[in-house]
Structures are given as structure tokens and as C-alpha cells.
Specification:
The complex is a heterodimer of chains A (95) and B (385).
Chain A (H helix, E strand, L loop, with lengths): L1 E5 L6 E4 L8 E6 L2 E6 L9 E3 L8 E4 L2 E6 L8 E2 L4 E2 L9
Chain B lengths: L1 E6 L5 E2 L3 E6 L5 H10 L4 E3 L9 H16 L3 E8 L7 H8 L5 E6 H4 L2 H20 L3 E5 L4 E7 L3 H20 L3 E5 L8 H4 L6 H21 L10 H5 L5 H8 L8 E5 L9 E5 L5 H10 L4 E6 L12 E5 L2 H6 L6 E2 L1 H4 L5 H16 L5 H5 L14
Parallel strand pairs in B: 3-4, 3-5, 5-6, 8-9, 8-12, 9-11, 10-11, 12-13, 13-14
Antiparallel strand pairs in B: 1-2, 1-7
Helix pairs in contact in B: 1-5, 2-3, 2-11, 6-10, 6-14
Classes of the chains: A mainly beta (95), B alpha/beta (385).
Chain lengths: 95, 385
């Protein structure tokens, strides 16, 4: 079974511990709790996917902390990475 | 817990027994390298600094170079200077000699040039190598250990496995009376509020915020998004999306003890326990800063893997990425990918890292040592004049 891990119950993303293809069912561990999530696209080992719908502008949460904000709407099971998340910090490019 | 090491005249303990040839300035590197070829059992510490630096950059380079010489892993130092630089060989020799270890210095322009300096240097090195070879290991406690911790080529497995497992080993060192230094200021951006909750005094918390803010202000002054520089392309390929995500995983490598102080780059801590050192995440500068601050051994937690080492301090490479453990076996000392695979606990993996630390303290060569992989590079913020 393909696997993923959620670092904190407050998180809205999970980290993949396997390479996954579209429509794969992934077993996600949050502490002792296991849930299954259907993946919507091919994603690499170590990358993240959405555990719940994340709207554009909404905070992305991992380790129970804010790691950035969504730059577009992200559906459950879709890849969450640099193409749809930006940092709040270290932004010399912003006015 | 008893380990063993080489007793130095100042009461410190080395876990290696090096003789070092140290350039005071980049212009002296060629002389140091030639002496190093004549005496391959000496380590050669060359770098790009020592002159044309402004204010705090000069102070920082001088402190770090002296710190490298003072590192207890080094039994004796030959400092090589040019004679016209701002960080002089004489100054470094005087600073290092405060530890009462063997120190000599040579100044190329004063001695009459390269050909005059080589036989003199050879004589010093010959004597120091003979002396060092007769120093025996003695039993000692872990309170003599300063452990440096760094993470590099981070991917998302770092925050899940190798960093928190390394943190467990770090906690064990502190519980045994030792000292731990971790750093990489850009990789605290977005996680400073977590570290600031466990500081020994409000001043330590304020200093932590001050160095992290200064780091972020340098990014802002550049007009750039930090992403691309940090997280670097290799981090992004490994699944790290933002600096906040990287930082939240990175701070776990230091463990969970109270932060006793915030050090300047290459600054030797006063007292025992956990310290944070200001400085960049880039590997050669980060490792050099830790060796300069007195770390006799460094743990390097990595996702994607790296051959990196320090010439002064053995570097133990730990990965939690199963592919890296397999693909880069020649560079990885401890494989904790069993955590990532769900087959092991962090506690058990942390114990294995701690055991490897004891093995390396006792003399076991790390992968980067057997490969002879290492370099010195000193953090410089401003321009060279």
C-alpha cells in the first residue's frame, strides 16, 4: 500500500512516503490514526498533497504551523508545491 | 559515560590529533598547499579571506581562523601569512597559543619569499608531527564534547526522520554534560517563535529574533524572493516548498533542550548545553563555523545526501531518505530511513546516531574522513575591497 504522513492533526497537507500515480489510494497516518485518500495526479515521493480543499489565499499548514499560502484553489489529493504555494517570509520581491 | 580523547594543555579534549597548516590570508594558500604536499599527514586549512574585508567581516574571519586553530582536535598549528594582510599570522599564532598548544608562524615577505619559507616550515611541521604522534588517548567524560549539528540537501524526509532523530542524540549529549551547537539562520525563518519558547533568558530570545530578522532583512534588501536560494533547487526537488517548511523541519535537529545562548559565527561558547550559532546554511561555511566554534564532531543530517566534510572535525552523515541511503552509501554513516518506512521509532534511531557519535569519538573514521573530503570557507557578508 502507498503511504503518506501528516505531521500534526492541524495540517491540511500530507507528505508522501511513496511515489504515486493518478487514482492511487494512499494510506495516510496522523499519529495513530489511519485514513485513505484518493490521489488526483502523479506525485513524487517526499512531496505533499492536499488533505482537504485549500482555497486560493488560504494558509497551508504543516507541523501544525503555517508554511505558506495557496496561490490557487487546491483540491483534495492534488500536489501542493511551489507551483501553487508561496512563502510569507523572505520576500524581497514584494513591495 | 566514559569516552577517550587527546588531552590538550588547556584541559580540553580532542577526538582527533591533527597538525594543521593554517593560512592567515588567501595569498598564503599556495605556500600552505606546498607544505601540505611535503607533509601529507598535516591538514591544510586554506580559505579566501584574511584581507580587504570590512569591519565585522574581518572580525568574524579572524575569530573563525583562530577558532579553527584552537579546536581541540588540533595538536599543533603552523600559521602561514604573507606579511601585508589585515589578519596577520602573528595575531593568529598569539590567539591560538592561549590554548598552550604547539604554535609556530611564518611570514613569507619577512622570511625572504617562498623558497626561504619552505625549509623553515618543514622543520616546524616535522617537529610537531613527531610530538603529536606521541600523545596518547586518555579516558574522559562527554562533558568535554562539543557537538556541531548541521543539515544539508534537506528534503521532506529530513523533518520527518533524520533531523528529529539527530535531535534525540543531541539531547543525550546535553544530558551527559556536553555542549551542542546548531545554526543556519535562514533556516530558522518561520520557526523562530518555536525556539524562542525555550530560552534560558529573555536576552537569548531577543538575540535569536535579532539575528533572524537581520538575515531576513538582507534577503529583503536584495529585492529577491528567498525561494530558489533557500530552499535551494535541490530542496525543492526533494519536496520542500517554502523556507517556513524547511525551517520547521530544520530546527528539530537541535533537539529539545533549553537554548543557553546565541553565538556569533565561529564564536566559541562559554558554558555547556545547547547553543544557536548565527550563520548561513551553505555547507562549507556552516561546517567551518562549527569547527571554528570548537565542535570536535559534527552530525550532518541530509535528505538528498552530500559528500561534505570538515578537515578539522569528523562529520557523521545521517539520512532518512531510503533512496539516498542506498544510492550514496559511500557518503552516509547512519541510515535512519527505517523511520521513514515506518519500521523504526525516532528514539531507537536516535540511539543509533548517539552510538555512532561515541564510535567516532573513539576514533572510527567517518565516510568523509576516509574520502578526505573537506574544505574551509568562511562566511563573508559585505564586499571585498
Amino acid at each position: 500500500m502507498k503511504r503518506a504522513i501528516v505531521m500534526d492533526p492541524k495540517d491540511n497537507v500530507a507528505t508522501l512516503l511513496s511515489d504515486v500515480d493518478k487514482n492511487d489510494l494512499v494510506q495516510v497516518r496522523t499519529g495513530e490514526e489511519l485514513t485513505d485518500v484518493r490521489i488526483q495526479q502523479k506525485i513524487q515521493f517526499g512531496h505533499k498533497f492536499a488533505m482537504e480543499r485549500i482555497d486560493k489565499g488560504e494558509k497551508v499548514v504543516k507541523y501544525g504551523e503555517v508554511i505558506g499560502k495557496a496561490t490557487q484553489d487546491i483540491q483534495v489529493g492534488r500536489h501542493v508545491h511551489v507551483h501553487n504555494v508561496e512563502s510569507f517570509r523572505g520576500r524581497g520581491d514584494l513591495p | 559515560m566514559k569516552i577517550s580523547g587527546y588531552a590538550r594543555p588547556d584541559g580540553s579534549i580532542g577526538f582527533r590529533n591533527h597538525i594543521a597548516i593554517l593560512s592567515s590570508v588567501s595569498c598564503a594558500n599556495d605556500v600552505s598547499l606546498r607544505l601540505g604536499r611535503m607533509y601529507p599527514n598535516a591538514i591544510v586549512l586554506t580559505h579566501r579571506q584574511g584581507c580587504g574585508q570590512l569591519g565585522s567581516d574581518k572580525d568574524q574571519a579572524a575569530r573563525t581562523l583562530a577558532g579553527l586553530g584552537k579546536n581541540p582536535n588540533i595538536a599543533g598549528v603552523l600559521v602561514v601569512g604573507m606579511g601585508c594582510e589585515s589578519i596577520t599570522a602573528e595575531y593568529l599564532a598569539e590567539e591560538i597559543s592561549k590554548t598552550k598548544k604547539m604554535v609556530e608562524y611564518l611570514v613569507v615577505l619577512d622570511e625572504g619569499g617562498l623558497m626561504a619559507v619552505l625549509p623553515k616550515g618543514a622543520k616546524f611541521l616535522d617537529r610537531m608531527l613527531h610530538e603529536a604522534s606521541q600523545i596518547k588517548r586518555v579516558p574522559c567524560g562527554l562533558e568535554h564534547l562539543t557537538l556541531g549539528i548541521k543539515c544539508g540537501l534537506t528534503d521532506t524526509t529530513s523533518g520527518i526522520s533524520s533531523n528529529p532523530a539527530t535531535g534525540i542524540a543531541a539531547d543525550r549529549v546535553i544530558e551527559s554534560g556536553g555542549t551542542v551547537i546548531f545554526g543556519e539562520t535562514p533556516e530558522v525563518i518561520g520557526a523562530e517563535h518555536i525556539l524562542a519558547k525555550r530560552v534560558a533568558s529573555p536576552e537569548v530570545g531577543e538575540k535569536l529574533y535579532r539575528v533572524v530578522n537581520a538575515c531576513e532583512e538582507r534577503v529583503k534588501a536584495s529585492g529577491m524572493d528567498i525561494r530558489g536560494a533557500n530552499p535551494a533547487p535541490g530542496n525543492i526537488a526533494g519536496g520542500i516548498t517554502t523556507i517556513e517548511e524547511k525551517s520547521l523541519g530544520a530546527i528539530k535537529k537541535g533537539g529539545g533542550k533549553t537554548l543557553q545562548g546565541v553565538l556569533g559565527y565561529g564564536e566559541i561558547p562559554e558554558g555547556k548545553g545547547l547553543f544557536f550559532m548565527d550563520g548561513p546554511g551553505r555547507t562549507p561555511e556552516a561546517l567551518t563555523g562549527l569547527s571554528g566554534a570548537g565542535a570536535q564532531i559534527i552530525i550532518f543530517s541530509t535528505g538528498g545526501g552530500s559528500p561534505a566534510g570538515s578537515l578539522v572535525s569528523p562529520v557523521i552523515k545521517v539520512t532518512g531518505n531510503p533512496r539516498t541511503a542506498q544510492r550514496l552509501e559511500d557518503h552516509i554513516d547512519v541510515d535512519v530511513s527505517s523511520i521513514t518506512k515506518g519500521e523504526d521509532t525516532l528514539e531507537k534511531a536516535g540511539k543509533r546516531i548517539f552510538q555512532e557519535l561515541l564510535n567516532v569519538a573513539a576514533g572510527k573514521a567517518t565516510k568523509s574522513e576516509t574520502l578526505g573530503y573537506g574544505m574551509i570557507s568562511i562566511w563573508n557578508i559585505g564586499p571585498h575591497m
